[in-house]
Amino acid sequence: DQIKQCVGANYCIDRQYQGLDVLCIQNAATSREYMGVPHIIEKTTGPKRKVVSVGGGPAGMEAARVAAERGHDVTVFEKKDQIGGQITIAAKAPQRDQIAGITRWYQLELARLGIDLRLGTGADAASILDLRPDIVVLANGGHPFLEQNEHWGADEGLVVSSWDVLSGKVAPGKNVLVYDTICEFTGMSVADYLADKGAQVEIVTDDIKPGVAIGGTSFPTYYRSLYPKEVIMTGDLMLEKVYREGDKLVAVLENEYTGAKEERVVDQVVVENGVRPDESIYYALKQGSRNKGQIDVEALFAIKPQPCLSEPGDGYLLFRIGDCVAQRNTHAAIYDALRLCKDF
User: Fold this and answer.
1) Which of 7, 28, 214, 268 is in Cβ range 3.0-4.6 Å of 335 for a Cys bridge?
2) Phi and psi of 51, rounded to 5°?
């Protein structure tokens, strides 16, 4: 049961085709053995610590697993009624259900390790400090970054996020414009999902083409799915603003090179603009922490223990990882957790 099953993400072979080191989306130690990144976590020879991890996405699940493997007493807060984070959302898209295998493995591991998993329980500074932690790891992610351009009208409900659609919070429209600034899996997935539900879809990006940041073995899979569904794919256009006209929405697009403007009349605009970190808990805890919430990045990149772990003092150490620092992919979130928590 402790053996990870391949989830068919193609993260490894996509990197190989790019001339990069071959890494695994869910096992951050793969190809990093020479750096000292462990596959098997050894028990600590130091003090047993109380570790609180906030967030049940990839970073939080790995942080909890690794800390528990070290022999520490671990509690996880997850505000939703299930773990998985963005993996749960990603798995809703056509052809992406296998990615949920990452979460299934962590469910088994967290249960095996006897971790105190508090589902449906949001964390704040008071509830965290009530547990008298020695270490707090924040992996509470972020939210869709719709507020970057006020003219999109997110506050007025003129645009919705890819998360809203994939999670089922918002029903698919009939004539939909998807605007994707990131050009990775989520934008293409929501376009595929909408088309699968019968919507007429155009996916627009300010980059050279939709999905340009997806690896060479993965984006053809999307294109083979999108073209038969008559999804229109448009590059080099920026979403300038959205306004309502009667019962329709008008999306104003601007060419990145000429400045020429175009309009689309639709009934739904879906924006994939990445993630904005949620930082409120971090700043509520930062000043009271022994290390002022700082990670020694040189030690982290060198796969060395954080110096503050061996420094005397009372109170708690505070670290943050994953999307609550800055947007990153599943592999990077898991890698964050492993290289930090392996020395707790």
Assistant:
1) 28
2) -115, 130
